[in-house]
Amino acid sequence: MALYDLGAVRTRMGSALFGMVAGPEGPENRARIHETPGPRWFADDRPIRQVHADASMFVGGLRALLLQSLHPLAMAGVAEHSDYRGDPWGRLARTSTFLAVTTFGPADDAQRAVDKVRGIHRRVRGVAPDGRPYEATDPHLLEWVHIAEVDSFLRAHQLYGSAPLDQAGRDGYVADTAEVAAKLGVIDPPRTEAELAERLSSYRPELAGTAAARDAARFLLLTPPLPILARAPYAALAAAAVSMLPRWARGPLWLPYFPPAEATVVRSAGHVLVGGIRWAMAANAG
């Protein structure tokens, strides 16, 4: 294949990936986020920018959804108020846009994005199948969603990122994300990697594999609406995400645990896949 043909393939792949993640308004949002002048919440050299710009976020994002589902009240809110089955790519686009705006966008736009999410959270309330009431504004639930996400993004970046962070960088990433979490309503979010691990451990007695969580895992891992050509790469992505989950998180979701294969075959496939995503997305950067 000629080099110019390879370049065209790269551009098409990058456009397709960007469109899936960012949605139809992706190019317009990207231009506004990166080209609008004004102060930002985070300087160019902050770890949050390095992590959130990396292709490893594809693996980390899926791992975060699986881990978050283990809190019965958080999962009840998703099951009853989120259209993750009917419009999974729309939900993905909204989430990725929020991350992009708060990480890279002008401070005013970042604050508006936070205010919008807080407004949505005020409308999300109900009663879980076990009879307990929940509210999305509950700081305790907000913290669970936050720490599951941050732990997943950080672990994915350490395994599959183009330039893994040192200890100071990892602590800096947790501290950066804490700034956004506090604005969303989390009280005293963790600000170091050690604090993040301690906080995750403190939630374990509350976690359980509900029917809704297992249903969401099956949908995310086995039956997402994808074209045939995308199913094999997505399967590798899913395997990489599952392999990053701790053993205690897999049993409740009925997910397999094969350490030797995960440390070799799955991780190698993950590196190839993330590297391919990085290569394709670079053609659409800027």
UniProtKB/TrEMBL annotation:
Signal peptide: none annotated. InterPro entries: MPAB/Lcp_cat_dom. Coiled coil: none annotated. One of its GO terms (molecular function) is oxidoreductase activity. Residues 50-272 form the ER-bound oxygenase mpaB/mpaB'/Rubber oxygenase catalytic domain. It holds the Pfam family MPAB_Lcp_cat. This is ER-bound oxygenase mpaB/mpaB'/Rubber oxygenase catalytic domain-containing protein. It comes from Mycolicibacterium obuense. The lineage of its organism: Bacteria, Bacillati, Actinomycetota, Actinomycetes, Mycobacteriales.
